[in-house]
Automatic annotation (TrEMBL):
The species this protein was found in: Gemella haemolysans ATCC 10379
UniProt domain Flavodoxin-like: residue ranges: 3-145
Domain of life where this protein originates: Bacteria
Biological role: Low-potential electron donor to a number of redox enzymes.
Record protein name field: Flavodoxin
Cofactor(s) this protein cannot do without: FMN
N-terminal signal peptide: none
Record keywords, A-Z: Electron transport, Flavoprotein, FMN, Transport
Keyword Transport set for record: yes
GO molecular function: FMN binding; oxidoreductase activity, acting on NAD(P)H
Membership in a protein family: Belongs to the flavodoxin family.
Length: 148
């Protein structure tokens, strides 16, 4: 099973969430996930051979995608990912009106590739620290792993 997680992170919150998810998938489900930093990617074929993938993003500006995610986002428009499982996670801050909207934007864009999302979008305010955060994380992991 080839599972990948691609993330963007400016100040480290989304990377921390990504690391937590990867650790929990391994510990709780025995699943290994390859972690990819969007800024290290030279082209946008890195998900083509994945059976399943997770996109992890923060939200910037006033509800904008991270700049380093924009080309990847556009490249998804030409992909046929039917048969793949995916989920979208991210961090944001509720002081902004457009809370975590990049997560929803990625979910909609990836849905057009034909891939299947068995999860609810996971949105974490800055870092996972409440009971609700950890319940949502567990739900995400259960739904994702059951669909594989
Ligand atoms: C200039 C600026 C604009 C932001 N705009 C939004 C926003 O529109 N919506 C949101 O939910 N969070 C917004 N945030 C909060 C970040 O998404 C949040 O701090 C996130 O955890 C950063 O992720 P990172 O540490 O992985 O870079 C903004 C932060 C900054 C500094």
């Amino acid at each position: 099973m080839n599972i990948k997680l691609v993330y963007a992170s400016l100040t480290g919150n989304t990377e921390m969430l990504s690391d937590l998810m990867i650790e929990k998938f391994e510990e709780e489900k025995g699943l290994e996930i390859e972690k990819l930093f969007i800024e290290d990617m030279e082209d946008f074929d890195f998900l083509d051979d994945a059976d399943a993938f997770i996109v992890a993003t923060y939200t910037y500006g006033e509800g904008e995608l991270p700049e380093e995610m924009e080309e990847f986002f556009e490249a998804l428009a030409d992909k046929d990912y039917e048969g793949k499982i995916y989920g979208v996670i991210g961090t944001g801050d509720t002081i902004y009106d457009e809370y975590c909207v990049s997560v929803d934007q990625f979910n909609e864009q990836i849905a057009k590739t034909g891939a299947t999302n068995p999860t609810e979008n996971l949105k974490i305010e800055i870092e996972a620290d409440t009971d609700e955060d950890f319940e949502n994380i567990d739900k995400f992991i259960e739904s994702f792993a059951s669909a594989l």
